[in-house]
Design goal:
Chain lengths: 401, 401
C-alpha cells in the first residue's frame, strides 16, 4: 500500500472517467456446478474480461472476513485497519443522519427484560418497524439532553435504532451493553479509556432514563447498545486522489459509506436499471463513479444460488449501456465474497476485472473466480485497486526522478 | 519486505556469483502483435526461462509509475519509499560528481527572461551543450562561495546543469524556482522546513549573482532550479548484504545510482557487447554484478517498437557468453515498464526471470510478460528480489532456530 502523502502528491485531476462497479459479495464457492459467476450467462462481462485483465484482491488480508465497512473502505483506497468505522457511525450514516466530528453514535437494539432486570429477549421479539417508531417517539419525548449533551434517537427497522450523543469532549471508546445471552442483566457501558469516563456516565444515565420511560411498554421495555463510535478522521477522495467522485447505491448503508469519503450521493431508484440510468444522467458531472449492486450479496446471504446468478446476468445486460458512455477505466469487482454455500460474508478474495486502453492484456476470457486466479493482475490487497484505477486513467504522475 | 536489521544479520559472504541483468523498461504492452518481449526472437532467454522460473514484480506498489531512481533503489533491495533520491542528487551522481553527506545538490535549467524579469523560455531554446559549457564557465568565474558555502557548478547537457552547495548545516528542503509556465517570474526558493531557512537564503543570493553574471548573455540569461536534495542516508550493499558488488552501465545516471549503494563502478564502453566484455574481464573480482542495458527504455520512450525488439535480441545473443562464466544466480528483469504504446515509464509490473540451481522450476518456456504472469514466482514487490538472489546464491542463513 502506497503511503497517503505520496498518492496525494502524485494524483492529478484529468477529464478521464473511472467507473467502479461493485457487485456486493459477488465472489462465491461452487455448490456442484460451479460458482454463481461460472454458471451465469454473461457474454458482455466476458468480452470485457477478454479485452481487459483479471485478478484477485484481498479486502483486508488473507483469511479475514470483512464487514461491509472495511470492505468498502479498502475499495475506496483507504487502509481498512487504520480507518475502522464503528457500527454506530455505520448505522447512523446508513439512515442518512449527518454526523458532526464530535458526535458519538451507537447502534441500539430494543430488548425485553423481566421484573428482575434479566434480559429475556435480546431483540424484543423483532418488533415491527411501526412498533419501533412508536417506542422511539416515547424516548424522544422523555430524553432530549443529559448533562448538556444533546441526545438524538432515530428508528432504523424492526428492533434496531441509532442514538447520537452530541456535545463537547465526547469519546466513543465505551464497551457495549449486550450480555450476548438471555437470562443475564445488561452490562454497564464502561469507559475503555480514561478520556471516555464522562461519556460512559452520560450513556449510563441515558439507559436509566430510557428504562424508566419504557417501564410500561411490552415487549420493548429496555435496550442494548453497542458500537459506540465517532466519525473516522478520514481525508476525502478529493483531497487524497484529486477526484470529483459520485456514488450510486440503492441501499442506504453504501450511500453512507460513500459519503464518509466525500462522494456526492446521487438520487437513484431501487433497481439495477435505475442505478445505471442515474449513471447515464450524471455522466458529465463527475470523473469517478461508484455504482453499488446490493443483491448479489443479499442472495448470497439467503443461500439463493439461482437468484444470485440472475443478478449477475442482470448486471451483464447493463454493460452495453455502460460502454456507450465511453468510460476510460472500468473496474468490476466485489467488496467481499458471499458464497451461497456459507450464507454469509467470507474471506475469499474478490474477483476483479480491470478494463482500460492501457491494461496489459492476459488470455482470460470469462469473468469468473478461476479465470481471475490466473489473470494478469495476480492477487493484491483491495486497497491497491484505487492507485491502479488512477494509473489507468492517467491520473498519477511519476514517482521520483 | 524483510526488515533491514534481519537481512543484515542473515546475509553471509560466499564465493557464489550473482548477476542482476537489468533491461531498462523492458516490460511493455501489445501494439497488436504482442509485446516487444513476445515478438523478439530470443532462444537463449527462452532456454533460461525454461530452466529457471518466472514472475512479476512491482517496482514500488501497484499502479505507481516510478522514475529511474526509485525503480533501481528497489531492485537493489532498498525500500523506495524510505530512500527517496532527489533529482539534484541523481543528476549530480549521474555526471560522476562526488557528493559529501552534507552537500545540497540541485538540478538547474538555463532559461530566458525578458526585461521585466518574465520567463520567456524555460529551457533557453535548448542551447547546445557547447553553449552550456560557456555559460557555466562564466558562472564558475563569478561565483565561488556565498556566506562561507562553496558553490560548485557543472554542465550536464543542452540546457541542463548541476549546482552543489558545500558547507555546514545545509538543508535540502527547499522549493523549486520553476514557475512551470512562461510569462511568469521565476519563484523564490523557499524553505520547506525552518531548518532550511539559511540554505534557501544562500540559494536566493546565488540566483541573484548568477542573473548579474549572465546579464549580457542570450538566450541563457537566467536559470530555474529544482530538486534540491542531499544524499540519502543509505547503508551500502556491503554493509547490508555482505556483498562485494560491481556495476556495469554505459549511461551515467545508472552508475550514479549504483554508487549511492556502494557498488564499485567498472569502466565500460558504449555498447551492450562492451558491457558484457567488461563483465567477463572483472568476473574474478566481485560476487555481485549489476549490468544495466539502457536502450530497451530509450526505444520504449521513443515508441520505436522494432528497435526495442532488436535490443532484446541483442541481449539474447550475449547469454551464451554469460553462461560460460558459470554464474550461480542470474536475474533478468526491468526496473519499470516502458511500453512503446505509452512512450514513457508506466506502472505495469516487471517481467522477472530467475535462474539458479535451486529455483523451483515452473512450466514456463519463454521470457515474456504473459509467461511471467503464470510463472512460479507469482507477483511481488521488486524490493523482495534481492533476498531471493541472495537465497539462491546460498548467501542467507536461516532465520530463527
Amino acid at each position: 500500500m502506497i503511503p497517503q502523502e505520496i498518492i496525494r502528491s502524485l494524483s492529478i485531476s484529468t477529464p478521464s472517467k473511472i467507473v467502479l462497479l461493485v457487485m456486493d459479495g459477488v465472489g462465491g464457492l461452487s455448490m456442484g456446478e460451479g460458482t454463481a459467476l461460472e454458471v451465469a450467462h454473461s457474454p458482455y462481462l466476458d468480452t470485457l474480461a477478454a479485452e481487459g485483465t483479471l485478478g484477485l484482491t484481498d479486502p483486508v488480508s488473507p483469511g479475514i472476513t470483512p464487514g461491509s465497512g472495511p470492505a468498502h473502505v479498502s475499495l475506496f483506497g483507504y487502509d481498512p485497519i487504520r480507518y475502522q468505522i464503528g457500527r454506530g457511525v455505520l448505522e447512523a450514516t446508513g439512515i442518512n443522519m449527518r454526523l458532526a466530528p464530535s458526535d458519538v453514535a451507537t447502534r441500539g437494539n430494543f430488548a425485553s427484560m423481566d421484573a428482575d432486570g434479566l434480559i429475556t429477549d435480546r431483540r424484543a421479539g423483532r418488533i415491527s418497524t411501526e412498533e419501533n417508531r412508536k417506542v422511539v417517539e416515547i424516548l424522544k419525548k422523555s430524553i432530549r439532553e443529559i448533562d448538556g449533551v444533546e441526545v438524538i434517537i432515530q428508528s432504523v427497522k424492526e428492533h434496531r435504532f441509532v442514538v447520537i450523543f452530541r456535545g463537547d469532549d465526547l469519546d466513543g471508546r465505551i464497551s457495549g451493553t449486550d450480555p450476548q445471552v438471555t437470562g443475564a442483566v445488561s452490562l454497564d457501558p464502561l469507559p475503555l479509556d480514561p478520556a471516555a469516563t464522562r461519556t460512559a456516565a452520560i450513556v449510563k444515565k441515558f439507559i436509566e432514563l430510557a428504562n424508566q420511560a419504557l417501564e410500561n411498554e411490552r415487549p420493548a421495555n429496555t435496550m442494548l447498545l453497542r458500537g459506540f463510535s465517532k466519525l473516522p478522521d478520514i481525508p476525502s477522495m478529493e483531497e487524497l486522489f484529486h477526484l470529483n467522485p459520485a456514488a450510486i447505491a440503492a441501499y442506504p448503508m453504501y450511500r453512507g459509506l460513500a459519503s464518509l469519503v466525500g462522494m456526492e450521493i446521487l438520487q437513484t431508484g431501487e433497481t439495477i436499471e435505475d442505478e445505471f440510468e442515474t449513471l447515464k444522467q450524471n455522466w458529465a458531472d463527475f470523473d469517478f463513479f461508484f455504482l453499488h449492486v446490493k443483491k448479489t450479496d443479499s442472495y448470497g446471504e439467503d443461500g439463493n444460488f439461482p437468484k444470485k446468478v440472475s443478478i449477475i446476468e442482470e448486471v451483464d445486460r447493463m454493460i452495453p449501456g455502460l460502454l456507450e458512455l465511453k468510460p476510460d477505466v472500468i473496474a468490476i469487482t466485489g467488496d467481499h465474497s458471499t458464497p451461497c454455500l456459507m450464507k454469509g460474508h467470507s474471506w475469499h478474495p474478490n474477483p476483479l476485472l480491470l478494463w482500460s486502453r492501457y491494461v496489459r492484456r492476459d488470455d482470460t476470457t470469462r469473468f469468473t473466480e478461476s479465470e481471475c486466479t490466473r489473470g494478469g493482475l495476480g492477487r493484491h490487497p483491495a486497497v491497491d485497486l484505487m492507485p491502479l484505477l488512477l494509473a489507468n486513467g492517467l491520473k498519477l504522475e511519476k514517482f521520483g526522478a
